[in-house]
């Protein structure tokens, strides 16, 4: 903490008296400079305590002299009495009070060198404290970075070291890491983030001064540091250390993520080539698990940027035993909890997905072909998702006589519609949902919002009314085609 005028006055051996602008004594002293020049502006940098005996000053010249000192940005004026002047010129005191320049009266017994030594000791102590704080902060950040804290730990540690908040933003301006209470500031910084191309930008968010600093990585990122007061030299050094550590960590993460992406693509190629056992064994060793078969294969296509965003989201938010995904050409492929994958794709937007029939790991190539065909159909129809069963059914209907197909549908579904119209149930909707979920009782009943026993009772009623055995794949196919015909009319 720099020595202030107030702290200097408090040093009793110096016997300094405040003669003007006492309210401004909180100013820090950058250095001490004695001079008898009436215009020393060319030799000042600002922040100095100027010392003079007023050799060339009188009541007439003092007001202009004070204003020149204010223009030069000096912290205050120390006026030595008992040599050139027995007391400080009245006009100098009045003008200094008017413009807010602190004036300290220095008695003859106090040599200027004593004041210089006092300030010098304080500056040296302040620089040493800054050096110690910088070194300690750099050590703490480094330990955090090489430990288990990672980028998130570095961000949180930096916030404590600068007594503020910290955000780590990715290339889109989204928050990837944040210290406590920092996230609400992200929206306020978006315009400044958009203006920043490289280097540093200082801005304001609420009552905080914010330093935006780009990271030295191939993937553009920005560190935002908010503090109530501007960063001092130690704070700036600590922030620069954090920037270097985060740049290195993120670049290593990027390389690691790239290697895993390529490995995922390779495993997709193994599955597509029929090497399911080798692929699943590798998945278990790398991610600790593999989604339970049979698999419905999901193929998602769209712009390259959207596919990358989907892969990033899946990498961050899914576990290996729930979802396996990988990139294959223009598709992101996934098995396991494909509904979660489809939701991610929907949030990103601009993507089209196809879903295969359930297949074993050995039959993955068949599921892959079905999923890609359905995805291409979804793209052509500009719809988010097409199931292969629907796509195949629509394709079959194109070659069937429409009148014959309609007659078949009306005949097969008539008992169910009559039952529903009399208000005794929802057989058509229940049958449709059950078939869409491949006869999976729990999934279908959850989608309908009924108990699985209720759904079983409805399917028994369907079999009773139509005289068809729903356990037969052929019967299920007939019902599915009948429902597809009905949906098209």
Automatic annotation (TrEMBL):
It comes from the Bacteria. Residues 14-122 form the Purine catabolism PurC-like domain. Residues 427-484 form the PucR C-terminal helix-turn-helix domain. InterPro entries: CdaR-like_regulators, PucR_C-HTH_dom, PucR_C-HTH_sf, PucR_dom. Pfam families: HTH_30, PucR. PANTHER family: CARBOHYDRATE DIACID REGULATOR (PTHR33744), DNA-BINDING TRANSCRIPTIONAL ACTIVATOR ADER (PTHR33744:SF1). This is PucR family transcriptional regulator.
């Amino acid at each position: 903490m720099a020595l202030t005028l107030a702290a200097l006055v408090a040093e009793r051996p110096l016997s300094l008296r405040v003669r003007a602008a006492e309210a401004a004594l909180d100013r820090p002293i950058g250095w001490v400079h004695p001079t008898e020049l009436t215009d020393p502006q060319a030799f000042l940098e600002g922040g100095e305590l100027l010392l003079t005996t007023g050799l060339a000053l009188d009541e007439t010249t003092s007001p202009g002299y004070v204003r020149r000192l204010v223009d030069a940005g000096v912290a205050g004026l120390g006026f030595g009495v008992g040599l050139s002047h027995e007391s400080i010129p009245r006009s100098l005191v009045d003008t200094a009070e008017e413009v807010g320049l602190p004036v300290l009266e220095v008695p003859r017994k106090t040599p200027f060198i004593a004041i210089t030594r006092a300030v010098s000791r304080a500056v040296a102590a302040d620089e040493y404290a800054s050096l110690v704080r910088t070194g300690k902060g750099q050590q703490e950040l480094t330990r955090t970075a090489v430990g288990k804290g990672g980028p998130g730990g570095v961000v949180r540690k930096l916030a404590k070291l600068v007594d503020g908040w910290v955000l780590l933003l990715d290339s889109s301006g989204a928050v990837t890491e944040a210290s406590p209470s920092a996230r609400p500031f992200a929206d306020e910084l978006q315009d400044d983030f958009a203006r920043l191309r490289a280097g540093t930008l200082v801005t304001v968010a609420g009552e905080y001064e914010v330093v935006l600093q780009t990271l030295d990585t191939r993937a553009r990122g920005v560190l935002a540091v908010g503090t109530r007061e501007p960063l001092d030299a130690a704070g700036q050094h600590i922030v620069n250390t954090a920037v270097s550590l985060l740049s290195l960590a993120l670049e290593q993460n990027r390389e690691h993520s790239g290697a895993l992406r390529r490995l995922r693509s390779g495993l997709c190629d193994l599955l597509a080539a029929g090497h399911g056992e080798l692929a699943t064994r590798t998945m278990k060793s790398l991610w600790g698990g593999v989604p339970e078969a049979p698999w419905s294969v999901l193929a998602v296509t769209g712009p390259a940027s959207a596919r990358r965003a989907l892969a990033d989201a899946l990498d961050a938010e899914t576990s290996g035993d729930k979802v396996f995904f990988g990139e294959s050409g223009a598709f992101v492929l996934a098995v396991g909890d494909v509904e979660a994958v489809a939701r991610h794709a929907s949030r990103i937007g601009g993507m089209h997905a196809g879903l295969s029939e359930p297949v074993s790991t050995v039959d993955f190539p068949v599921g892959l072909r079905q999923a890609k065909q359905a995805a291409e159909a979804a793209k052509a129809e500009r719809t988010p998702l097409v199931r292969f069963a629907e796509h195949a059914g629509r394709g079959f209907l194109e070659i069937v006589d429409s009148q014959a197909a309609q007659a078949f549908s009306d005949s097969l579904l008539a008992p169910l519609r009559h039952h529903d119209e009399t208000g005794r149930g929802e057989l058509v909707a229940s049958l449709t949902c059950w078939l869409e979920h491949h006869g999976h009782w729990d999934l279908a009943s959850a989608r309908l919002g009924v108990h699985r026993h209720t759904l079983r009772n409805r399917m028994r009623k369907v079999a009773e009314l139509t005289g068809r055995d729903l356990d037969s794949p052929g019967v299920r196919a007939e019902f599915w085609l009948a429902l597809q015909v009905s949906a098209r009319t």
